[in-house]
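Quick one:
INPUT:
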């Protein structure tokens, strides 16, 4: 695909047309998504309410059943005939015994048949060594079975007692209070299979499961053993939160958990429903919604391609012509056979470049001469300033009588001025400019060797032959000494590094002057970025302007705070093809 040269996509006509179409269609698509989300949330809330209502109804029914069994158990404990049988067994006749036993059996059969929650009712009567049961009628007392039941009754403080994976309601009748002997123990065994079946009736959705759970961990009954095995260790945490509805991930799948709690029985009922199951009723609408989105995207693509062929492609061809013209190529008219508006524009463009060819040579040469003159003028501003600093250093060395360093200094100073005063091209290789800057830092090291350390990186070989204006590195180093490092008593650091990128190079000069304030940095940045507002032309503004004149407006100086906490000056040069 052709690209728009030097024009941001968001500002192109093609982009605006596509955006206009999107602005028309996106509200419609969003309405569809809103309807989908509203339907999903509404259905989810209805399911949540219905599920929670079923749980509450189930728990109320279970609670009522247990309360009824408690009342029947209490009446059995107070039953005169059963008490008479336990107390007077040895003094009543066999006829009376049979009559009493028949009464007791009839009574417990009647109770069992009145509730589906009861699997068996047993009455242990130790004084007569008999056990009454709705399953086995009357049989001799099993001492081990009785002791186990009596022991669990005494150690458990729960209404529903769990014993050998079975659930019971139990109580005991003593003769003469608790300090007397045991007359009989009444034991109601709950039908766990029936309870599980009723729990399965609560699990209306595929993959769901319901759990009846004692909050103190006495028992747990589940309609789906796989789900229970996955969450059994998390049940205390779920019950601790105790919200009506919560979310949980089980085996990598999201489940909704609905629950209710009975304070009377200290029991929770919960139903776990897979999230994906709740989404199935909306699957058809989801397919429709995504079909709508897909059709909208196809429409957008059709508009995109038609706009591209009719408007964008001819427009790009015209823009490329202007780009060639901007680069100075005026011998490439646009060839076309169009009869529409673009045909008129193409013809006008071709006539324009013909007229420009007659004027461009004169205007271009005049501009280059003015640019070269400005380069000369800006370059000349640097030499007097450095000359003053050089004599100041020489004077300082003379005062301390350091003849050897004066000799070294004058040799390096001679090399320095030989570089500045030589005639020739205004541009030098970067290796020469770096060599000159190294001479300058060597001069300064004679003066600040104890206070200021210089880290001067080697110039990469691929950067050595790049042509740059003279005196773009040394004045910045000089500025670092004068305004940042000269007043440091110790541990001053100047660092010079190089970076080579695909389309640009960077020369980085930074120091560790931690006295640099943010306000000062912002002021220096403002002056560099707005040289026309500054009356005084400083060394850095001079360099910034010369770089822009030579390499274009994208090049120049970039000022930041260094990682060393001082000033970081980046000489950014954009390479031209």
């Amino acid at each position: 695909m052709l690209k728009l040269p030097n024009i941001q996509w968001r500002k192109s006509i093609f982009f605006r047309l596509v955006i206009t179409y999107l602005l028309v269609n996106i509200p419609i698509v969003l309405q569809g998504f809103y309807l989908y989300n509203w339907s999903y949330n509404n259905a989810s809330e209805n399911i949540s309410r219905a599920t929670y209502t079923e749980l509450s109804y189930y728990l109320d029914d279970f609670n009522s059943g247990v309360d009824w069994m408690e009342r029947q158990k209490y009446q059995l404990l107070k039953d005169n005939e059963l008490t008479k049988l336990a107390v007077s067994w040895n003094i009543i006749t066999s006829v009376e015994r049979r009559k009493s036993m028949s009464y007791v059996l009839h009574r417990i059969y009647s109770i069992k048949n009145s509730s589906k929650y009861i699997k068996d009712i047993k009455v242990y009567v130790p004084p007569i060594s008999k056990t009454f049961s709705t399953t086995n009628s009357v049989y001799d007392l099993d001492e081990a079975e009785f002791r186990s039941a009596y022991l669990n009754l005494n150690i458990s403080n729960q209404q529903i007692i769990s014993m050998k994976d079975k659930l019971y309601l139990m109580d005991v009748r003593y003769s003469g209070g608790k300090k007397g002997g045991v007359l009989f123990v009444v034991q109601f065994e709950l039908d766990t299979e029936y309870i599980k079946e009723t729990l399965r009736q609560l699990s209306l959705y595929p993959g769901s499961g319901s759990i009846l759970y004692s909050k103190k961990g006495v028992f747990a009954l589940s309609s789906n053993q796989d789900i229970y095995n996955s969450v059994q260790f998390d049940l205390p945490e779920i019950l601790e939160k105790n919200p009506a509805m919560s979310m949980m991930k089980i085996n990598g799948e999201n489940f909704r958990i609905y629950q209710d709690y009975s304070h009377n029985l200290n029991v929770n009922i919960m139903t776990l429903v897979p999230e994906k199951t709740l989404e199935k009723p909306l699957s058809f609408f989801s397919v429709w919604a995504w079909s709508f989105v897909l059709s909208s995207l196809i429409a957008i693509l059709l508009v995109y391609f038609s706009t591209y062929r009719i408007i964008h492609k001819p427009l790009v061809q015209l823009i490329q012509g202007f780009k060639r013209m901007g680069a100075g190529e005026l011998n490439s008219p646009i060839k076309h056979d169009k009869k529409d508006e673009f045909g008129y524009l193409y013809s006008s463009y071709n006539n324009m470049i013909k007229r420009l060819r007659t004027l461009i040579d004169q205007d271009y040469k005049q501009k280059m001469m003015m640019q070269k003159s400005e380069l000369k003028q800006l370059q000349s501003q640097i030499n007097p300033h450095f000359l003053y600093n050089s004599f100041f250093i020489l004077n300082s060395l003379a005062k301390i009588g350091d003849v050897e360093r004066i000799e070294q200094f004058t040799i390096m100073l001679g090399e320095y001025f030989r570089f500045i005063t030589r005639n020739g091209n205004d541009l030098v290789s970067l290796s020469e400019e770096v060599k000159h800057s190294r001479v300058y830092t060597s001069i300064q090291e004679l003066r600040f060797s104890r206070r200021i350390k210089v880290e001067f990186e080697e110039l990469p070989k691929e950067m050595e032959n790049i042509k740059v204006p003279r005196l773009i590195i040394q004045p910045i180093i000089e500025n670092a000494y004068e305004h940042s490092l000269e007043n440091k008593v110790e541990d001053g650091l100047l660092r010079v590094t190089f970076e080579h990128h695909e389309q640009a190079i960077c020369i980085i000069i930074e120091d560790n002057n931690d006295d640099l304030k943010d306000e000062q940095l912002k002021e220096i940045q403002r002056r560099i970025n707005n040289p026309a507002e500054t009356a005084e032309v400083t060394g850095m503004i001079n360099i910034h302007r010369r770089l822009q004149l030579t390499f274009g407006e994208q090049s120049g100086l970039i000022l930041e705070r260094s990682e060393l906490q001082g000033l970081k000056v980046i000489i950014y040069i954009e390479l031209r093809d």
